[in-house]
Structure formats: C-alpha cells, structure tokens
Amino acid sequence: MDRILITGALGQLGIEFIDHFKKLNSFVLATDIKNPKEKLSCEFELANVLDKDKMDSLVKKYNINVIYHLVAILSANGEKDPFISWKLNMNSFQNIAQISIENKIKKIFWPSSIAIFGTESNLNFVSQNPLMNPTTIYGITKLAGEKLMEYYFNKFGLDIRSLRYPGIISTKTVPGGGTTDYVIEMLNAAKKGNDYVCFLSENTELPMMYIDDAINSAVKLMSVSRKDLSISSSYNITGFSITPKQLLNEMSNNGFEFKVHYEPDFRQQIADTWPKTIDDSLSTRDWGWKPKFGLKESLNKTLN
Ligand code: SER
Questions:
Q1: Which of 5, 8, 148, 223 has the most C-beta neighbours closer than 10 Å?
Q2: Is 151 a catalytic residue?
Q3: For 236-266, how does the pLDDT look when each residue is reduced to its tens digit (9 = 90+)?
Q4: Residue 243 C-beta-side C-alpha neighbours within 13 Å
C-alpha cells in the first residue's frame, strides 16, 4: 500500500493530487507552510521542507513510502529574488532526496518544467535532449534538479521520476507566479465579466496542458516499471500549444464577451526563451503517454 507525502500540497498541483488519491482511498499526508482555508480530505501537517528534521520525523511518524515533492518558487516570482529561489528550490530538493535515501522511500515524483530550455533549444519543436540554457533562476534550479535525480539514481538507486510540465490549466487555486499564468487569469476575468490585461503579447505561443492530464500523466509515470523508463531524468510532455489570441478567440466562440489588452512585461522576455511546441514522443514510447484534453476540451471543463 502506498503511503504518500505531498509537499507544497496547497498549490496548483497539490490540491488536485490530494483529490485524485482520495478517490483511490490512498493514504495521503499533505504538508505546506500555511494552513488550508478549508479542511482537506487527508491528513495535514504544517511544515517547511527546508526544515529537514521536521520532514524526516513526519516521514517516520506516518510511515511514508512515496513522495510527491511539489514545492517550488515558479518562474516569474523566482526572478524577484534569485537567491531565495535557489535556496528554496534546491535545498528542499536535497532534503527530500536525503530523507528518501535514509528512509528507503520507494518512489518520488518531482515536476520539472519547460523552463529548462533556452533560445538554443530549437524552440519551434523542442526535442528531449537539446542544448539547454535556461534564462530564469527557476529554470536553472529545475535543470540542476534533473541532473541530481540522474546522479542519485546512478549512485544510490533513488527512484525519482519527473515530467517537464508546460503551463497547467486549472481553476481550483489562484495562479502561482508563473509565466503561463495568463491563461488562468484570462479565464477568471472572463467568468467574472471583466476585461483582462495580458502580460504577454497576443502571438506568444506556449505549450499548455489541462490539469487532469497533468495529474494522470504523473500517476501513470509513477505506476510503470522502472525498467521501462529509458531515461533517468525528466520526460518532455505536452497537451497543446496556444497563443493569448487563440485562447481569446476560442473563449469568444464559447460565448464570452470581454476585451483583452496586451501589455507585455518582463514575463514576455521569459516566454520568448520557452518552447512553442514540444516533442513528447519518448513519453509515448516509454510509458504510453497520450493527452486527453486539447484546447476545446480544456475550456469546456474550466468554463462550465
Ligand atoms: N507554469 C510554470 C511557470 O510558468 C512553468 O513551469 O513558471
């Protein structure tokens, strides 16, 4: 039986993983640095992943054997203070890796990101292993984490699995400070009948994925035999690619009447170094990845 620890559990992914595992009746311990606003459907402990002793004691107390380590400062927020971002993203990763080795954790899921790529990665269609020169501190920490997960697998047999998530579309939480947040902000504005000021230009194409695909892909990746995985770093994965203009058109087709103004800010420079489309054929080959949600299906789910 899996006994799952989720760190960063109140974030965009964490809340949805909790719901997913609840349906399967799995044991879940959620941790975060703030208390939940409403009672969760699982155990909860207030804990900072930078406090290694506390995390270690929780792993022991609850007999944890699987970890979903989701804590991170995202791309746009990360630029406010790169030193704090490095410290949080990397020290939390190191703490979880060490605790996992010492407590013989079976498997860890840790999200990587499209932020690891850069302008030399052939951004029109990014392969699994191009040149990677990330331009944000967030991307740098994700790439460093990818190197570490490979290293710990080879050195200690530590089984960390990972996906390079694109922008994730969901509405249960408020946007978390990423460069792809405009999608969620635009959806929320439209639902309230407000106009929206978009921080990216109308033709900025980025890869996206509906939340159910993000959760199901991680769970699928975690379920396969390790010997089926031909790489020990993170897998490319994508749902579909869109621009703000295409999103607006599709929302208009769904009957939403609102105006979008474009005022690109520093996040435009970040987006310009991220992929437009992604080659995720290795995920399809190795562990059967197939997205269920395109733009239309994602909007159907989020707008209704
Ligand atoms: N959605 C994330 C961000 O924009 C990408 O990993 O930072």
A1: 5
A2: no
A3: 999 999 999 999 999 999 999 999 999 999 9
A4: 10
Q: Whose CA is nearest to atom 2 of ligand 1?
A: 178
Nearest to 68 by CA among 221, 293, 231, 254: 221
Strands 206-210 and 240-242: antiparallel
The domain boundary residue, chosen from 218, 251, 280: 218
Strands across the sheet with 112-113, in order? 112-113, 163-165, 235-236
Centre of ligand 1 to C-alpha 147, Å, is: 19
Residue 50 sits in a domain whose CATH number is 3.40.50.720
Of 138, 165, 182, 235, which is the active-site residue? 138
Residues 152 and 248 occupy one common structural domain: no
Tally of structural domains, the chain: 2
Type of residue numbered 180: T
Structural domain of residue 275, as residue ranges?
A: 167-208+238-303
